[in-house]
């Protein structure tokens, strides 16, 4: 971790506190009229440009202004401020987004939430199921669609969609900006920094432009690994083995501080070409690389921000991911019709190094420092063609074709360098050699057609219907596996295959009795792709058949019924949006543990989910702006098959029932060139339930965070002081299985820092 010697906690804290004294109120004469009303937000959630307040879907939008004034940098900053959304930041490869309580966190499952970067789907399956946490650098807006979006976004949009829309190249003029951010973190001896730069270059005025973005983060860790040491022990006699066959290595006492540091870099280049007045072509490349330098959990038995693991003596744990995106979007407009082609090639490379010493200790009574290394490479190609109507007529339509092909190459192995005598063939009773991988290759191919039409009548009423038909083929191959403790599939084992077809309809009725009031009733069906199960050892086949698990797990589906209102009052200074919904989730894909030690996925339950969401934003006078969001969801199992750990009437785990946020911003001016604002935000994430076994249930406590931001700005320069999690709340976002040792993943502790931005044209 790079240290920033010139940036001390004392200096940052003093600057932060002193600035609070000099904030002066703005007068009405200094504030333009358009600052006194709410900003009109245009979104493309329905594959066409519409006002957010007109879209008959529960949608939240985070604008470029929100990103700057609220200090949003990634998913962890903004998703928990959206009603009905919970982000579990477990680090590269394992972070999860849960919308309206709909979760599916079992390893290897497709996601319940689709994520997009522009036209590119980034929720690529790589046997981890996690979401790439893209940094919000030079982003135009983020759209969060709640509820299934199966008609327009297809598989994995079962719970909703999160879309990050980057700023587009601008051929009208040159612009550039640079930014830097430094901050300290409580419980850490290191400082953190972020640098970024953007340049927009018109190559042909009003026709061709290039936009290039780059950024780098070094984020300090705050967890210390304090290991008391352990002697070398020969466990052979206790297990009836010859002396010297099972000898755990001696590990001296050691301390490693701030082990969970994180390094990120990213680049993006976009070329926008207005070939003719009718034809536009956009090319985009983006890469983001994230490395987490150790496992990011604490062991509360050893301390609030500490862990105790011998494996770090031999190697650092951690995780990493690299996402590469290449996109070509071409759009041609006729007088009444538009044709769009979106082609995408992307690749996700991920790794995790996990400490599974607990498994060796549980199996052999020996604390052997075993690492488990997971590696996966996911490759994705998608092609979408859309033909849609233009103009403002009462009849609007859209039709399209979609193709997807993705592959996932997954391997898993246990290096034996820390204990060369601990994993010979005789110990596991099988042909198992150290460093031998368990490998798996999977392939998916989708073909879909979709359409949506709407008709406005009597000037105030609009009815819309849509549908998507999809065919999905999946193949999984386990070409070689020497097993792990239990005999696995043999080399040359045949492929496991599965296929499915889904028809997903949707419909809505929208009523606009006034210009600033929209009421809607909406129903839609979403689905998640089926899954090819891993090939099980022969010893597991009978147990799998007993719970109805076969080679292929069918898609699960979700119907959403929603009533919503979107409104503005007080001459556009108060906005209020609300929605109530009922969801029926059928054939839920659940993990079923087998007596042989493996687990399988099965369509093992049904869930009902009822909820309510509320969003409010208000401009009070010339200087004050307020926002509020809250949600409540109640998801319960309506049906459960034997063999799972759940029961009928039980609450769905892994997501909070309640969340909320509130914010206030006060704007001021300081003469003819300088202005600024003070902003405070509070975020609440409710208690959630975790379940690891029939009798192993855990309640994870609620937490809240308070943030403060003070900015001084002129046309080309911004100086911002900020504090995040000011109360230093120890919020737990994930908890490990207690019977395997208490482990907790936390939100980041208090951070205090300064940010500078400079722009020029």
The CATH architecture comes to Beta Barrel
Work out the count of structural domains. Answer: 1
Number of discrete helical segments: 7
The CATH class is identified as: Mainly Beta
Could you tell me the mean pLDDT? 85
Give unreliable regions as ranges: 1-34, 424-434, 480-490
CATH fold title: Maltoporin, Chain A
Distance between the termini: 35 Å
Estimated structural class: mainly beta
The whole-angstrom Rg is 27 Å
Signal peptide: 1-28
Protein name: TonB-dependent receptor
InterPro entries: Beta-barrel_TonB (IPR000531), Beta-barrel_TonB_sf (IPR036942), Plug_dom (IPR012910), TonB-dep_rcpt-like (IPR039426)
Organism: Steroidobacter agaridevorans
Verbal overview:
This protein is mainly β and 761 residues long. The chain has one domain (9-760): Beta Barrel (Maltoporin, Chain A), CATH 2.40.170.20. Helix content is 6%, strand content 53%. The chain is built from seven helices and 45 strands. The strands form ten sheets. It has a 22-stranded antiparallel beta barrel. The chain has a five-stranded mixed sheet with strand order 3-8-9-6-7. The protein has a three-stranded mixed sheet with strand order 16-13-20, with no helix packed on it. A hairpin with a 3-residue loop joins strand 37 and strand 38 (674-685). The longest helix is centred in the N-terminal third of the chain and has 11 residues, at 9-19. The model is unreliable at 1-34, 424-434 and 480-490 (pLDDT under 50). Belongs to the TonB-dependent receptor family. This is TonB-dependent receptor. Keywords: Cell outer membrane, Ion transport, Iron, Iron transport, Membrane, Receptor, Signal, TonB box, Transmembrane, Transmembrane beta strand, Transport. Residues 303-726 form the TonB-dependent receptor-like beta-barrel domain.
């Amino acid at each position: 971790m790079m240290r920033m010697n010139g940036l001390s906690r004392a200096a940052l804290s003093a600057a932060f506190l002193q600035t609070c004294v000099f904030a002066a109120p703005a007068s009405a004469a200094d504030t333009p009229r358009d600052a006194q009303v709410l900003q009109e937000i245009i979104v493309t959630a329905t594959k066409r440009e519409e006002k957010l307040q007109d879209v008959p879907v529960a949608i939240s939008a985070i604008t470029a202004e929100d990103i700057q004034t609220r200090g949003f940098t990634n998913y962890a900053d903004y998703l928990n401020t959206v009603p009905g959304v919970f982000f579990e930041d477990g680090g590269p490869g394992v972070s999860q987004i849960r919308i309206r309580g709909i979760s599916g966190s079992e390893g290897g499952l497709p996601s319940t939430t689709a994520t997009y970067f522009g036209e590119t789907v980034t929720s690529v399956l790589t046997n981890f199921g996690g979401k790439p946490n893209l940094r919000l650098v030079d982003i135009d807006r983020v759209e969060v669609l709640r509820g299934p979006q199966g008609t327009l976004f297809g598989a994995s949009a079962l719970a909703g969609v999160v879309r990050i829309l980057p700023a587009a190249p601008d051929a009208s003029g040159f612009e550039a900006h640079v930014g830097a951010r430094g901050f300290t973190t409580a419980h850490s001896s290191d400082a953190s920094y972020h640098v970024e730069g953007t340049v927009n270059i018109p190559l042909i005025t009003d026709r061709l432009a290039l936009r290039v973005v780059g950024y780098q983060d070094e984020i300090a860790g705050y967890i210390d690994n304090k290991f008391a040491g352990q002697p070398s022990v020969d466990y052979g006699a206790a297990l009836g083995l010859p002396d010297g066959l099972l000898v755990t290595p001696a590990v001296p006492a050691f301390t490693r501080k701030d082990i969970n540091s994180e390094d990120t870099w990213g680049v993006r280049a976009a070329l926008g070409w207005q070939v003719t007045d009718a034809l536009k072509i956009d090319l985009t490349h983006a890469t983001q690389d994230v490395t987490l330098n150790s496992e990011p959990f604490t062991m509360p038995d050893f301390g609030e921000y500490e862990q105790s693991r011998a494996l770090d003596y031999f190697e650092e744990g951690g995780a990493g991911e690299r996402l590469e995106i290449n996109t070509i979007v071409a759009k041609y407009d006729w007088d009444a019709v538009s044709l769009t082609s979106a082609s995408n090639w992307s690749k996700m490379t991920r790794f995790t190094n996990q400490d599974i010493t607990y498994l060796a200790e549980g199996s052999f009574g020996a604390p052997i420092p075993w690492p488990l290394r997971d590696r996966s490479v996911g490759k994705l190609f998608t092609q979408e063609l859309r033909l849609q109507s233009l103009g403002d007529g009462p009849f609007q339509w859209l039709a399209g074709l979609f193709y997807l092909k993705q592959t996932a190459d997954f391997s898993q192995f246990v290096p034996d360098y820390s204990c060369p005598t601990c994993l010979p063939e005789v110990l596991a009773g099988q042909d198992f050699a150290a460093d031998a991988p368990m490998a798996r290759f999977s392939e998916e191919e989708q073909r879909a057609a979709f359409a949506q039409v709407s008709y406005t009548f009597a000037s105030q009423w609009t009815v819309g219907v849509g549908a998507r038909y999809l065919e999905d083929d999946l193949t999984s191959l386990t070409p070689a596996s020497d097993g792990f403790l239990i005999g696995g599939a043999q080399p040359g084992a045949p492929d496991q295959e599965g296929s499915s077809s889904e028809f997903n309809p949707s419909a809505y009725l929208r009523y606009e009795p006034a210009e600033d009031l929209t009421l809607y009733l909406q129903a839609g069906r979403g689905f998640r792709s089926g899954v090819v199960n891993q090939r099980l050892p022969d010893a597991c086949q009978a147990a799998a058949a007993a719970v109805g698990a076969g080679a292929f797990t069918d898609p699960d589906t979700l119907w959403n019924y929603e009533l919503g209102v979107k409104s503005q009052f007080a001459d556009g200074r108060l906005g209020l949006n609300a929605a109530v919904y009922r969801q029926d989730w059928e054939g839920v894909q659940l993990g079923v543990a087998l007596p042989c030690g493996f687990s399988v996925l099965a369509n093992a339950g049904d869930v009902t989910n009822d909820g309510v969401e509320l969003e409010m934003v208000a401009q009070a006078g010339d200087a004050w702006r307020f926002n509020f969001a809250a949600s409540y969801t109640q998801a319960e199992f309506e049906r459960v098959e034997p063999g799972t750990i759940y029961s009928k009437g039980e609450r769905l785990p892994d997501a909070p029932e309640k969340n909320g946020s509130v914010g206030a911003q006060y704007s001021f001016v300081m003469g003819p060139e300088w202005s600024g604002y003070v902003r405070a935000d509070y975020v609440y994430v409710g208690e959630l339930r975790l379940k690891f076994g029939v009798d192993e249930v855990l309640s994870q406590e609620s937490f809240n965070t308070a943030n403060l931001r003070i900015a001084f700005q002129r046309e080309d320069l911004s100086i911002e002081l900020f504090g995040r999690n000011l109360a230093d709340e120890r919020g737990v976002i994930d908890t490990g299985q207690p019977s395997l040792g208490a482990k907790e993943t936390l939100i980041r502790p208090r951070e205090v820092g300064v940010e500078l931005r400079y722009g020029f044209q």
